[in-house]
Amino acid sequence: MHSGLPFVSGIAVQRYLAAEEGLDAAYAEGCTHWYIDMSLPSELPDQWPRARRRGLAARARTLGLTPIIHGNFRVPYATEITELRNAALGYLRTELRLAADLNAPAVIIHGGAYVEPRPTRSGREATLARFISTLEVAQADATSLGTELWLENLSHYPRFRPFTYVFTRREEYAQVLARIPTTRFILDVGHANVNQSMALPALREFAPSIAALSLSNNDGSADDHLGLDHGTLVVADLLQAVHRVNWRGVIAFETRGESAGAGVEVLRTAWKRTEEA
């Protein structure tokens, strides 16, 4: 699919399928990339014997698509339990080795969760600090294997839950970059729209460090993965920000019930208006 959008270097799609089925689905939709979702039971590290890796890599080459490893968002990278945090790093290394075997340019990593019924500011800060320390080690591992880590923001749920996600707020981008200036991000604009309006400020401030945009919409209360023109995130405003900061990179569609092609059409229409403004 040729998007006709000057800021798009590649188009990925997330269909929540086994890797082989996801590859075929992305090819059918005309994408250049597809997600391998490591949180699915069929994609856990022990489900990847050498023959499967080789077969998938060969088929991806034949079809001309590139995988992006969407790391398991449940991994407790920021836990206060040292033994679990070390085990989480070991788990991440299995995802990084898979990326290397499949010639994937990136593994998407998430901050995990801070589990506390009554979270405090100091508790959140300590949790983020632990995650950044883990990320620092992981970045070196990724570099040694010839791939990148892309840090994805999770949804911000500030109340009425026994946990809060780690790495959800704009100011946390700055904290990560202060410790690890080479960090690359995938800005999930749907997550950034949950209980806040973070997508535009984050893009404006951190565009040089943002490798990709994950695209979906919602009503602002939960991560619904709606189509781009169904929700409270205004696509035209997002593209105006893209235009102003001259951002370019991969776009990834995580829209349930809407094709990547339909999403591209929404973007084309909004982009045309942006150029005419």
From TrEMBL:
It holds the Pfam family AP_endonuc_2. It comes from the Bacteria. Residues 44-268 form the Xylose isomerase-like TIM barrel domain. InterPro entries: Xyl_isomerase-like_sf, Xyl_isomerase-like_TIM-brl. This is Xylose isomerase-like TIM barrel domain-containing protein. It comes from Wenjunlia tyrosinilytica. The lineage of its organism: Bacteria, Bacillati, Actinomycetota, Actinomycetes, Kitasatosporales.
